[in-house]
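INFO batch 0412 | record 1 of 1 | parsing
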Amino acid sequence: MSDSSDATLQIKGVSDGLMVSLGEGTWSEVMESLLATIDTRNQFFKGAKLTLDVHHRIIYSADLGLLRDKLADRDVILWGVLSTSLVTEQTARMLGLATRIHSSRPMEQTVKPVESSLAGEEAVFVHRTLRSGIQVASKNHVVVVGDVNPGAEILAGGNVVVWGKLRGSVEAGLETGEQASICALELAPMKIWIGGQVINLPSRRGIIHPEMVSIKDGQLIIEPWKTKEK
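INFO prediction complete | emitting tokens
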């Protein structure tokens, strides 16, 4: 894909989608330019995974989260953020965004058969933002890469994992009962149930880190969602 440019933007294709390098200007100016470019070339950008190179800019979670929402409204996925600022890099990681671009390699060097004894489980994988009025239902687990907006609904026989912002309604454990869990990068749902039990979450104001909700011994457990340390 050949490079293209806007007054403040450099756009090119990379292995993970599209790379947009921001030029001179304030954050609001370059964001207006980016959104205007997407609006005028909506077919080109529709469904694209976008990585922003913001260089030395310091960007906080409120601004980056707002941009992610505006891009999602245009069917564009904010995939990653590259920056020389440690603050911006930490913000991107907190929102579950990539901070590195993987270099591509010849297929014969990267694809090798691997045997594994790990047992897997069936799940429905949805790679998009769920907008109001959309329902995803499965007797298995449900994994969503994208936001779940207010008015959207997920019905799952097992666990629900949202790699994005959960603001809609979720019912997990229709088959597995209270053994199910609900995980999201940002947990702010309208309503959630686990195993038929309504979960009343405390105020989520100010909570923007990944969390997991589950029921243990009849008690509601809300804990940080992170991998176990080795």
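INFO post-check: The two ends are 41 Å apart (CA to CA).
INFO record closed
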